[in-house]
């Protein structure tokens, strides 16, 4: 290691933290959670996470992009911009998705260059020196919460990134002080960067030295505008704004904020800018901000978080420390790292999408102002309603109430179609995936006693979404009780997902005393039966004439077919609102257990799923790399065999999670894969959000302390936990035996001690009685609503 690299690496190390604080009368249980996090987990394989700098739920997600030159079908592997195996870094951009199954963003890519030669094209990754991209070495790369650093070998630059909520700060240092420093800003670059994606862009140098601009793109979101502002810590010695296409007539794209006060400006479809600083005796800092509203919004966001690189880094580290301190972990080192990083990944989205003055761009592409809340976006709801949002109700209830739910309802108010978001980012709807899964997010928060939003308006938004006939076959679903496959693709999946969402609407309506709405949606919640084929034991697609579609292959996976990113094996278990009824429909407990075993033990040797990008992490026909399977291992408990759940969870955790770049078997999907691990490691999981219950599995940590928002703590202890003791022998809560297979939300929020006694073999008697089984609507015995978060 060269001397300057050694100094750089030492400077990049995080400040040492004292041991994490424990509840009164308890000793600390290990290093601070923040010091266990490894943001590189998921940056290889198909995890699609990014290693760069971001604050909790930050608007700016500042990270390296290793390649943006993909064609459409090849973009999947670079959905987060960075891929661990790539040999070069193309630059650092301000926006990314954490673990999405689709690519977009990568806005406003910047690349520092030291020396006299300043290329304005990225170049060929196979030809070093052919452009502004650079080779790098993982040994000279550092990733921590809120901080990223790397040495750009070809460009001769040490690069460091940090981020606040609405800003990103980069610090660049040339290896030699005699070399002039430059910054390339490439407005052509984007993720999912097919020809014609950038509709228009602008760049402007203002008299005060701030650089602003905007661009309009047509990507995953059909029309998206984003603006930026840059401030430099050193004066410019020169600049150039270059269009790399034939000059075109200005078409009126205002940028927004185009004016005559600029020192220089340019607009076009293919712009790249160069900023020159000359030789510098110290590092240059570049502070960036974005706004979906206009340049003025970006400038205001830029000013909203003052401080230099070190100040912003320290502030963001403090924010991460507070966010991650909700959980302390004692476990073997690999598990500690995996769980801590999972918690970190679960706290990146839904991201702030509103400006510091409250303005934001809505689904109608118009500007609105949030009243008393911070507008959020990046809603991957088909994924995150399952565990990500239930986790946030435990550790971020204020954010859930005042930001997330109000943002969902506000988006519905501004939606041209009058429905809640489906898959939204930066306020723009993509219509990706199925269901109206904002409904369970809202219902779960309300039923848990989380306030801060207008429940009547929220219920009206849920009802409107569930009765909008043009959406996804809902018209036929409301008249027939199922979605017909000859009129709507993925009809089997849509039928059962709509039925679950309907049940959550009914739950919230009944708790609010709206018995008319509750009765309607309770009836609709039973529509899953209309797609259940008693003869085969699978959920299947039916045609308009009522017949099941043939031929039928339960292992077939094809986009646009009967199922969404899955097949009959995965979707036939999606009746979370009434698993007891499904057990009966399958022929009883023994038949259900046998079918679950058949799913996990299925021989896939003759099947080829290479055409389906999201099908990863297979254990038989269980597919942990995609969400429809995520609750399935817990379903043994509904058939009286929780010990089988315990065995399957061990199989899943050991094969699907590792503290390595390829340590996630599938897309993290904005925190869902990670939230699954956090819950599962603690020993319980929300199979049915809005039920106010968690199914008990088995813990994967020796001890953990969950700091609850009401000031209480839940301590989880697993006595004798090791590979030789994988089964639960007994469970106690505050010293009282728990003989049922579930915990109530109120019990968790009350805090105390949840203790598991582990043993070598299964306890087949524990929680096996029918009275001990988790929630099902046909056997419901729960209160309508929790007393609240504390």
TrEMBL record:
Name of protein: Putative alpha-1,2-mannosidase
The Gene Ontology biological process annotation of the record reads:
carbohydrate metabolic process; glycoprotein catabolic process
Cellular component GO terms, alphabetically? cytosol
| Signal sequence interval, chain numbering | none
SUPFAM superfamilies from the entry? Answer: Six-hairpin glycosidases (SSF48208)
Q: Which organism is it from?
A: Sphingomonas abaci
Kindly list the residue ranges recorded as spanning the membrane: none
**Domain Glycosyl hydrolase family span(s) in chain numbering:** 298-759
Region described as Disordered: spans on this chain: 765-790
Tell me which Gene3D superfamilies the record gives. Answer: 2.70.98.10, alpha-1,2-mannosidase, alpha-1,2-mannosidases domains, GH92 mannosidase domain
Q: Could you give a GO molecular-function term held by this entry?
A: carbohydrate binding
Question: Where in this chain does the record put each Glycosyl hydrolase family 92 N-terminal domain?
Answer: 36-291
